[in-house]
C-alpha cells in the first residue's frame, strides 16, 4: 500500500470515531524513519485508545502489519508505527506540551481537512 493511501485510510479511521484536530506532516525530506506523521487528539484516555484501536483494525483489514505501538495502557499519548506512517493520538494537554507540529516545523504540514490530496473524501 502506498504511503499516501495509508494516510487516507488512517485519517478515515480516525474520523470514523470523531478524532479531533487531525494533522498530517510530510517528513520525507526530514527523516528516513517514516514518510508521514499523522497526529490527532482524543477527548479522554478511553477515546485515545479507541481511536488507535480503530486505526489498527482498519489497516489490518487492508493487510498492513503494524511494526509496533506504545502508550495504549495509559491513553495519554498512544503511538502506532505503521512503517511509512507514524500515528500519534494524544490528549489535548499532552499534544500541547509535546507540540510535535512545532518540532517538525519546516516539514510540509497540512491540516487533514485542508489537504485534498491526502483527505479520503477527495479521492
From TrEMBL:
It comes from Pseudomonas taeanensis MS-3. Pfam families: RsfS (PF02410). The gene is rsfS. Interacts with ribosomal protein uL14 (rplN). PANTHER family: IOJAP SUPERFAMILY ORTHOLOG, MITOCHONDRIAL ASSEMBLY OF RIBOSOMAL LARGE SUBUNIT PROTEIN 1. HAMAP family: Iojap_RsfS (MF_01477). Functions as a ribosomal silencing factor. Interacts with ribosomal protein uL14 (rplN), blocking formation of intersubunit bridge B8. Prevents association of the 30S and 50S ribosomal subunits and the formation of functional ribosomes, thus repressing translation. One of its GO terms (molecular function) is ribosomal large subunit binding. This is Ribosomal silencing factor RsfS. One of its GO terms (biological process) is negative regulation of ribosome biogenesis. It comes from the Bacteria. Keywords: Cytoplasm, Repressor, Translation regulation. GO terms for cellular component: cytoplasm. It is found in: Cytoplasm. Belongs to the Iojap/RsfS family. SUPFAM superfamilies: Nucleotidyltransferase.
